[in-house]
Amino acid sequence: MPTQIAAPVLLESIVARGEVTRRDSRSAIVTTQALDWPGMLVEAGRNDVAGVDDLVGDQHYLSLNLDTAPLKLEVKEPHGFKPFVIPPRSLWISPSANPITLRLNSTLRYLRVSIDPLHLGRLITPSLDEVGPVHLRRTYAVESPQIRHLMLALKYEADSRNAHGLAMVEAVTSALGHLLVRHAGVEQPRPIHNRGGLSAVPKRRVLELIEAALDARLTVEMLSREVGLSVAHFARAFKETMGRAPHQYLLALRLERARRLLETTEASLSDIAQRAGFADQAHFTRLFKRAFGTTPGALMRTRH
Question: I need a surface site. Which of 33, 51, 83, 99 has the fewest CB within 10 A?
Fold first, then answer.
């Protein structure tokens, strides 16, 4: 059973400015908290907030109604307060940098997830060269079993206190991000059309080679020779099939291998950089920080 903690911190932790009105701080109960996952926070418990004024968060904020009764909100709009009803097992989405004033007329059991927009962009953008923040719009009464199950998966992972669960958390968050864009994205993702991609046998051969020799000095030329294609044809077909250019795909796999090694071994940073296929530690550190928002040394110190 998770420890019950008084005085919930998630709402305040994402506030850039604004005021929060509580009914009775003694009634606040938090049953789940995960505050040490990069780029996101998770909290579950019983709500004691009666209203907020000009609340602005620097993260996207998702709230799932876990109660058996509907949640009734009154949200301030240009022509006065407008009522909204959040049915049980539904959620509402409050985007970052978007001020909100609202009143709640009921307490509830809740699950809250906040995600940094840029971190979400890193997880769901195919190209590391094109990462940007994910922009959402405010949305009420979202009925999505997929989002609900993914949020609950994050809650259960937080409750398990798994020291090596970051890869699972980010996989779930990535899937959650794609669903959020579908339901509340300002811009919908462009569909990927697979025209002239790699056929099954060359694709399998290339992926097997990459997996077996990820720490080697693999090049696009080597991969294209393996399947008997010109470099230009192979690069184009690979991107059509995998959604990323070959060098971007290799980089993402190497960074993920490096992160797993940081979490599970006592190896030095230079050794991890070499085992993940990076030419030197400085180059590895720079790319790791760009991808994950922290340096490998900082992640290693946090683990210890």
Answer: 83
The whole-angstrom separation of Cα 190 and Cα 208 is 29
**If you ran DSSP here, which 8-state letter would residue 39 be given?**
T
Nearest to 292, CA basis, from 9, 40, 15: 40
Q: Is residue 290 part of a domain?
A: yes
C-alpha–C-alpha distance, residues 82 and 75, integer Å: 5
Q: Provide the token pair at 179.
A: 């669903």
pLDDT digits (tens, 9 = 90+) for 203-240: 888 888 888 888 777 888 888 888 888 888 888 888 88
C-alpha to C-alpha distance for 302 and 290, rounded to whole angstroms: 18
Q: Say if residue 14 is in the same domain as residue 103.
A: yes
CB-CB contact of 22 with 37 (8 Å):
no
- Number of C-beta neighbours around residue 120 at 10 A: 27
Three-state DSSP class for residue 171: helix
216 token code pair: 């080697």
State pLDDT tens for residues 137-188: 999 999 999 999 999 999 998 888 776 667 788 888 989 999 999 999 887 5
Amino acid at 148: R
Please give the residue that has the higher pLDDT: either 3 or 200. 200
Tell how far CA 152 is from the center of its chain: 14
Which residue type, as a one-letter code, is found at position 77?
E
Q: Of 265, 239, 167, 253, which Cα lies nearest the Cα of 209?
A: 253
Distance CA 223, CA 235 (A): 9
Q: Are residues 104 and 74 in the same domain?
A: yes
Task: Give the pLDDT confidence score for residue 148 in this predicted structure.
Answer: 95
Domain that holds residue 291: 200-303
CA distance 293 to 300: 14
